[in-house]
């Protein structure tokens, strides 16, 4: 394979994270969004599931050449196609450290193509990726700089050309390309990508390790009376709040408060839900505007003693039912876990397939896949003590090492002091940035705390390592 350097993804630019969904380019997205109840039709925007609520589905399109077909591989409708960044990830501590050293010593001027320069000639097995095609592709790849956008566009077209050539080499699929190119690619992938199906045992291990993620969200059944008023009308809002307090007293003093609420809603509410007695139906978080949601989800069951203000006006709110979130059992979480792990498995298998195509291709003009694809998304980059020591020993150059060593030593002393004197207050530059009580608890468990994802957020040593790795544009393990 022939590769000429054109890679504006220098160390000053972000590197891919270890979350496979966030580090991929979603060629097709067709997933349901919650109704955010931020209406353009004059309704109150309080969400809910009554007949007058308005769902706003937002369709995000990052890359597509044919809009007529959107294949679905999973229940949630996400069709995942990785960019070449996914094939750059390192599979071992040794590779990670070597990459860090290389980046520290890199000549950045050779990595970033100037925006004043033309895009180099790029070919895939002799097929030209034209400047015009790259220019047309740019609209699907927003980036911080023109160079970055051009690079993302070029690499997307190179990957697409690799797939096109694979389709044309398949006697069963080559005629499909002219009819529906995206469908042809989907069939090619289905034919050549064979991910492992996660077993119940693997799913149970994942559930045990990430149990905190699997909870049913809190939901509430709510009704309200809206006195509509723009946010800028301060004096009018004061008067409406007085009126709302009076109406709350009227409802509370009624021999039939529930019936009184319905009557008042039908007479006075400016929300279309008035015809249903003000009922908004079942609300989940994210279904209404933030300022309304924040207050409502903190309310107990019953009529709120005070009115609630939102951008739409003043609300009298009655919580008819509330069901707090609860932990899901393994059986309840199993479909979600299996779907998540299936997506990861498919993603890994797809990357391996693309790497195979790349290895058998002659690509000129762009360096998109420089390393082996054997990816371990759970490589504990900032966990093991051995790895920390290797980083400190081998990153023995430049400002990064000095700052890393200083932060590491400070945080190590802090941990030792806290271990020796758990009740003693130790002042460091970190004390204003971290949860001290959580840190105290975690350091007592040292080093077991390093094995838990949530603990690393508060552990000084891991924060120092993570900060240094971030400067080096490297990533550490994250839960899916």
Secondary-structure blueprint:
Layout: E1 25-29, E2 78-81, H1 93-104, E3 122-124, E4 127-129, H2 131-137, H3 146-168, H4 176-179, H5 181-192, H6 200-209, E5 219-228, H7 234-252, H8 257-268, E6 279-284, H9 290-296, E7 302-303, E8 308-310, E9 313-323, H10 330-359, E10 363-364, H11 385-394, H12 398-420, H13 436-444, H14 453-456, H15 460-471
Antiparallel strand pairs: 1-2, 3-4, 3-10, 5-6, 5-9, 7-9, 8-9
Helix pairs in contact: 1-11, 2-3, 3-5, 6-10, 7-8, 12-15
Structural summary, described in words:
The protein is built from 15 helices and 10 strands. By secondary structure, it is of the alpha+beta class. A hairpin with a 2-residue loop joins strand 8 and strand 9. The longest helix is centred in the last third of the chain and has 30 residues, at 330-359. Mean pLDDT is 66; it is low at 1-42, 49-94, 103-117, 369-402, 426-437, 439-466 and 471-480. Residues 217-321 form the PpiC domain. It is an enzyme of class 5 (isomerase). Keywords: Isomerase, Rotamase.
